[in-house]
Amino acid sequence: MSLRFPRLALAAALACAGQAAHAALQPAADAPLARRSNSVCHHLADNSLDCTTENQFTILKPAGKDLLSRIDFTYSDTDSLEVLDGEVRQPNGRVVKLDKSQVETRAAPNPYAGVSRDKQTWIAFPELAVGSVVSYRVKRHMASPPLSRELLYRLDFDAEPTRNDSFRFELDSPRPLLWRGEKMDDFKIDASADGKRIVVEQKAPRYLNFTNEWNNSALRSWPRLSIATSDSPQSHFGVYAGRYNQILSAPLPPAAAAEMEAQRGKPAAEQVAAFMQHINGHYRYLNDQRLAERGLVPFTLAEIEQHGYGDCKDLATLLTAMLRASGIAAEPTLVFRGNDAQRPLLPGLGTVNHMIVRAVVNGKTEWLDPTNPFFAPDRIMPDLQDRTSYRIGVDGQVREENIPMQAATLTSRSERVETLRRDGSAAIAIRGEVSGWPLVQLAMQDRFQGPASSDQSLCRAVNKQPRECKVDRPATGFLQPARYAARIDSVDQRAVEKISGLYLYDPGLEHDWDGFASYLANGNQTDVYLGDAETTERAVTLRGARAIQPPFSCQASSRWYDLSLEQRKTPDGIRYQYQLTRKVRWLSHDEIASPEFIRFNEAARACAIQARQIIKL
Fold first, then answer.
1. d(CA 282, CA 312)
2. Contacts with 553 (C-beta within 8 Å, 6 or more apart), sequence order
3. pTM of the entire predicted model
4. DUF3857 domain spans which residues (predicted)?
5. Of 46, 175, 407, 592, most Cβ neighbours within 10 A?
6. 384-408 pLDDT tens trace
7. Can you say whether residue 196 is alpha, beta or left, with left for phi > 0 and alpha for psi between -120 and 50 degrees?
8. HSE of 49 in the Cβ direction (CA atoms, 13 Å)?
């Protein structure tokens, strides 16, 4: 059983728009709310949990009224939640008690790609004002997930627009508890002599929130604590291994069996691609919890085929069965899906949110996700890289394994010819190919917005002011090829800028390096997500151009990037060769602010700026 510290689902949350003028830790003086919290939880013999929580909020700023306009609690229909009492104490001392009419329980909104029976209880407090003190007590019973025998409770103190003036959490259990923490210096943690009771208390008021950070950035480390009844993955997940292997021992249902027979004898990689295509074509990704609260337990193979849909554990189980029936080693594997995944402090249900398949194809490990509407062979998707996984073996053993980061590969190569005109325009001819994640992104835009939208995006990406742009490329589909070729022909009306009888050519290669310099100047604090490690290559020929500066080449290297740029004369103009390799998926704040990265960024920017030059026609 896994639980995370219950964070309020607050309506009317604050939104930020526009470019950051300055990014930094938000001062506590700007906090819109202050909170005092006390929770007492009892772990019961049946692995369920009873928790009573008291929260008191003081509204410090007008924005605090919006954050407290409605408080939502969403929970499974196998759980129960009772609002014991509540009140608003006004700045003048008047107390308004919470009325039953201000508490409502209803069906929770269905999640994306899912059908659930979850419930939602909300509280709407009246007469809120700056200085009002809002208090409530709730009691919640959380049933143990099916088959679960172990407890995992997580406390996460990540950034939020609430000043925490006091926090106390108490958990007792009939079984000994163990705990592991990270960055918990601001908290006192006491365990009883028998290990069956743990109390966590905040030492002093604390506030952690950020303003004006980049959209592609995130705080990836914060104070957190895990409390569990076991530190063994086998104890937490082994009970599911028996049920999975029981389901997998059944015969394949008719459609899956027919597909397996149709692929028999073909190379293993072709069979894998065919099975992924079969599941994508015949089943939709849908988490259906109407029939029962299944937790990590999938439907049977026959039920999955009968339904024609399934969630991650259903589709992964069916794919595992098809692979095994074809003689390909495969294991259902639990993982946390997302661009970033913290290493679990302790194992348990709260450390995973997704199931995939680990297969060995021609001696190489593949991490297969049948919930995606695409398949790129030999690639680990960005939301599965560099994280802990738990694979369920045919012997019933659960083995912890790290999914590696995808090594950098050549994902984009282009040959661009610009035939320059004296009015500053140019006829543009691009011949290029893409693979990996850029190709997946193109296929996704084709699927959800249509190829015409994708073609417009491509034309805008390669021209400053496109006209008569024509894109010639094959249709994208579920199976991503190793290389995907495309041609773009257009007229760029602003290929170069006229300056006193000369022309300025600017390919914009310094954009990323300017961005990191701005990050430091603005005081940004969070880590930056870059995407897959990759190499891109560009060759650009400016026909009809004569360079004023002599030919040059430059390089900049680091443990994060390698950059090389060369410019030389050709019989008909100027030619540029540009290559950039990104070696990492994330850049931490400490890395960006390090002297080593600053030196590299300055060298990379200086190199890229050399491509901006005055030319003659």
1. 15
2. 564, 565, 566, 567
3. 0.91
4. 45-183
5. 592
6. 999 999 999 999 999 999 999 999 9
7. alpha
8. 24
